[in-house]
Amino acid sequence: MSEKVRSMFADIASDYDRVNTVLSFGIHHVWRDRTIAESGVARGQSVLDCA
Hints:
2 helices; mainly alpha; flat
């Protein structure tokens, strides 16, 4: 089952990012960058997105 879920998300990932950019007028890039900066996570570390 996990491979099926992984495949589904892999298939929609590029479309999701493109639609998110259009619908948010690109502001989600600012939100993401600000969240990363404020979280203290370092390059190469993993983060679990529970949203």
